[in-house]
Amino acid sequence: MVLAAFILVAAAGAQLASAHFGIEYPTWRANTLSSSTNYSQWTQPCAGAPVLPDANRTDWPLKGGSLKLDLHHAWTYIFVNLGLGVNVTNFNYTLSDPFWNSTGNGTLCVKSLPLPTNLPATDGTKATIQVVTLGESGNALYNCADVTLRANATALSDSECVTDPGVSYVPVQQASTAKSAGTMASVDIVSLSAVAGLALVFVFGMSL
Ligand SMILES: [Cu+2]
Questions:
Q1: Which pLDDT does position 46 carry in this prediction?
Q2: Which first-to-last residue range defines the signal peptide (predicted)?
Q3: pLDDT over 60 at 204, yes or no
Q4: Ligand 1 center to residue 27 CA distance, Å?
Q5: 71 in Cβ contact with 62 (< 8 Å)
Q6: What's the gap in Å between 71 CA and the centre of ligand 1?
Q7: What per-residue confidence (pLDDT) applies to 25?
């Protein structure tokens, strides 16, 4: 009986952990994966987690620093934004331009994520980093990490910033749309109609 209860709890925990994502560095505002809280990563801008007194605020390099994510989905689009202030409501700076497409679940560490050069920040400026992930349904997940921008803060070392094997990301180049459209035009029209025909057979087959 005890064992059964343990397995049930373990299974529930595993299911929870398999969903959504975490920020490992800088320290996130709250553990929004914890089942003991009412945070929801579906809630923008920061999963419903309120800004705490400076306990969870990390000193982060003024020119940009490291970001370490714990990804739980097979793939996702990732957007990293930044807003200035203590209680940020407007995340109007984008740190991922273009946005990223990540593959694999596990730790993804970006050692040096530069801040915009025109950012009106000085040593001691408070800011919040917002990470948004977007999956195939179009619904987004949100998490935030509060930082103090510091001239003397440093990025994580190579040994602290390790990406798990099988995890990677690529910036999504907008130019690739035009490129694939060009490729599409050169595709043999006969093979295209053959594919369409097969699709129709499949659809009718399914409805019978
Ligand atoms: Cu999820």
A1: 97
A2: 1-19
A3: no
A4: 20
A5: no
A6: 9
A7: 98
At residue 52 the predicted structure's pLDDT band, cuts being 50, 70 and 90, is: confident
Which tokens is 175 given?
A: 């130019």
pLDDT in tens, 110-159: 999 999 999 999 999 999 999 999 998 899 999 999 999 999 999 999 99
Token reading at 177: 């749309």
Q: Is 179 helix (H, G, I), strand (E, B) or coil?
A: helix
Determine the average pLDDT of the residues in 66-78.
96
The domains located in the chain, with CATH, are: 21-175 (2.60.40.10)
CA distance 69 to 74: 14
Pick from 131, 142, 135: nearest CA to 41: 142
Please give the Cα distance from 144 to 138 (Å, whole number): 20
Distance 72 CA to ligand 1 centre (A): 7
The 3-state secondary structure of 88-139, one letter per residue: CCCCCEECCCCCEEEECCEEEEEEEEECCCCCCCCCCCEEEEEEEEECCCCC
- CA 61: distance to chain centroid? 20
pLDDT of residue 176: 52
Task: Name residue 46's amino acid.
Answer: C
